[in-house]
Protein 1
Amino acid sequence: MNWFDKIDLKKIPDLPEIEDISSDIPAVSEYLDAFFLPEAFKQAEIDTLPVINDQGVITGIVSEYDLAKIIPEWSFAKESYRYNIKVADIMTREVWTEMFHTNIKELLDSVHQMHTRVVPIVDAKNKYTGVCITRGNLLKYLTRMVKPRSLGGLATPIGVYLTDGIHQAGTKSRGLFLTGITLGFFVLIIQNFADFILDFVQIPMFLAILVEIFIFLSVLRITPLVRIHAAEHMTINAIEKGLPLNVETVRMQSPIHKRCGTNLMVLLVGIQVLLLILYEIPFLQSPILQFLFIMFGFLFIFSNWKNAGMWLQKYFTTAKPSDKQIENGIKAGKEILEIHKNDVRPKSPNLIQKIWNMGIFQILIGFFIVLYGFDFLYNLM
């Protein structure tokens, strides 16, 4: 029994088509002067090319390695210009070919026997179709079945949300909408409180924004969201390290993650505050001072935003989760791994999928429902 026979094919929606694991690769004539091969490799952006005869029938493949075997003697010969070496003289004649209706299961099981970069696709008469299965595409397809290349996630009021960019696991979109609604209420209450305070204390706008952010983070710190947020990070860290998903192991992971949205928030807020300072501080009206302020300000922000984001994660946006919250993260982690592994289609998410599965859209919908809903009710009163 080979490794592929151990997979339950009933759980796999569909195996890839030839088009999913192949690329258009030009062929070269067996009569081509080998002197022109480097340029052919460069134009095709691959170091191995199919070789055809005048009828378009595959007669071999030629690679940089084949050329390298003869090029020293050829190039250093005293009268090298007299050499007349054709592709047919150096190509590999034993060629592994496949047809469009090839058995994908057998092909995937034989990838370890693929000693060349390309397997030309031919028709019934062995004529080249212009398409090759590439070893790189096969390996890329097989490695993506191991685990997601990248995971993202969010903390929601009802648990952990995880995504590999294509699929959703955990609380899915309903949790993201609730996150937007929760954050909307937080912002609404904090803005009204800050506006009340600022009626008595006049401070520049950039300071008012910083005060509101500090209050927001302080309120967030005492909610369950920060502990769920930590459980999400700890689960992802365990998966990325290849560790078993159990409470004991996940609890040992860091609650901080380098791709956390907190880091991006620091960058965006930093740029906003920088521009407000530039607008509100009178002595910065000089063009020279404005230029210097922007240059050094952006240099400071782009040099420190990640470290500042990690600091905020540590002290404000994450906290030690309970076993129940870790178990929730583990459940979402196992779910996303199972979904990803069973979906063997080598498809990359399109832009709409990426945006939707990032969760920003759903959060914004929930967020604006609260803000505009409050304004609507307020105007009715």
Protein 2
Amino acid sequence: MAPAGTASDTLDRPHFIGIGGAGMSGVAKVLAMRGARVSGSDTKDSPIVGALRELGATVHIGHSAGNLAADATSVVISSAIRDDNLELVTARERGIPVVHRSDALAALMDGARPIAVAGTHGKTTTTSMLAVSLRTLGLDPSYVIGGDLDAPGSSAHHGAGEIFVAEADESDRSFHKYAPEAAIILNVELDHHANYASMDEIYASFETFVRRVRPGGALVISADHPGARELTARVGGRGGHDGLRVLTYGEDAGADVRVLAIEPHGLTSEVTVRLADSLGGAELTFTVSVPGRHYALNAVAALTAGAALDVPAAELAPALASYTGVKRRLQLKGTAAGVQVIDSYAHHPTEIAADLEAIRGGAGEGRVLVVFQPHLFSRTQELGTEMGQALALADASVVMDIYPAREDPVPGVTSALIIDAAARHGADVTAEHDRDAVPELIAGMAKPGDLVLTMGAGDVTDLGPEILGRLQSPEN
């Protein structure tokens, strides 16, 4: 691969392979808004591709050497792009610089005051909360998020303000490329088993990320999560490096932003926090417009990071209520025959359990039915038992085959690992290998007052409208 250190010099006419992806499309959008002549390709058309075309991007459907323009100044890829991709092969043959998405995003943050949001879970939600609340305050931040806020292509924006908010992805260590003024670390757990063999490797990777925080900057980190507490100890507690300010948040009595109460109110929560004297010492109560304790804690992380960059906490706290969700994060897809259908991106056991607990709190007397699609063979191999245990929190589950994404099958690794574990924990679980049979199966199970949750990081999200359609069918 050609060196990517000069990404900012090669992004005038970039070509994105896989431009429709959640992360890639955001970088492409910001570049297009800054005046770059963007092109790209993807395997299928989508509303996100349409939004990029409206910004002037040229997008080809399908991958072909002919898609790569003769005057392209770079080819932008993610870690999901294989070496034998025709456009990537052609770029290397022509000597066109190949730039990783993370290098392109790092170049976009040059000259800004970046907040980079990291952690095994909750990155998209927390980044979105910051982007929306800062926008509500009129600060016009730039941002790149791993999911759409309210419309296709809304995952990114080029703003006139100083602050740039971005997700920092640990899965392939690409978050080592960023140099934020403030870094948020929500939690630290073992995941991404194709890239990390142990928790020690995970900790080492996050330590490298922390060392990238600008001198005099801030690390905002959970005081409650065991992995985050261990990382705090490893990076020097409250001292840090180069004057790093470590700000903790959570329910722990010693947290700099201490959560005093989280009171659920249906599908919202009321949160009360007390700020340390170094942050003004105030006690604040504000609303979080999405359900669940984990989302409330994400909002507190966002509040702490904003305060670290001198955004008045008393103004930011009420602005956080303007965040009403992001696509695929407990997103209501619709209601039919008295049954609500909600979509969740949860694919790690901790996320599955957290979303099920949040939904349970707002589900009333109805049952919670889950359609779960495991994501990646490597993750299922390592965490299948824990996934099954988490699914036991649902009243009934339908488990689909594994969504492979970028991976090849692993012998002996199937969704049966999850199903068997769920059954051992007393769960009502059904295997369904035929994706097209799922809507009818769920329609036959669901009763008025029930809530159906489509869950996973793959294409299970597409089943929501089909389930609603089947529920509305006169035959149901």
Protein 3
Amino acid sequence: MIDLHTHSTASDGTDTPSQLVNKALARCITVLGLMDHDTVAGWDEAIAHLRPGLSLVLGSEISAQTSDGISVHMLGMLFNRENSALLEALAKTRESRFGRMEKIISRLNEVGVEISIEEVLAQLSDGATLGRPHLADAMVAKKIVKSRDEAFETYLSNGSKFYVAHYAPTPEDAIRLIKEAGGVAVIAHPLASLRGRIVSIDSFKSMVDAGLDGIEVSHRDQTPDAQELLAKIVKQYGIIATGSSDYHGTGKLNELAEFTTKPEDFEKLEARANARRVVRK
């Protein structure tokens, strides 16, 4: 089984990279994608704990934003981690997340939700990318909500009045950065309407023109109708369909390998990178 989109404590997952590797092995996954938000911090630990039977696709889920403010997540896979332009863009995005978090907390405080930046940072692993799930975990710890899912449903979704955007490149610029670093670019859950406003169908052309390699078609947050539409877009543009769990660990319903990528589609995707970077032992 091939699951190309998972998260660890290097961003907003609850499993360390080594725990994630062990769970993937136990689940009989053969190819695991580690896609922490705007960071490559978990790569080395994942590699160190890799064992025969499992291959790693290393990358990052890169935050992007359209010109009209729609949040887009771009999976950059199999890129050269030494590429300075991409690393600088990731660092700039991570830095902007702190100011954004303070603004979200301020909005929550204004309506009587008592939470502080210190309580949020206490949920953050060393070197991890700060995100709304850490705020959700702080709210769970204070018994404001019972789970991450409840926190997002009540307070933290993209459509919430508490939502604040952070710096992010356009989807096209994110794709170009990934391609210039020798990797492949797959847009994650683009029609997941529960997360907020979704990209327009017409916008896929400009992303394909920028070098988009694939679309995450099979994902829990996309309806069967949305998945069918995305499959047609994949066929229209001659790109690649993927399926992934978007696993985050405890507090989120997604289970490892609940959606997977077909082996033949993964082969096509891997061939689009400028070097063989799948990690095997």
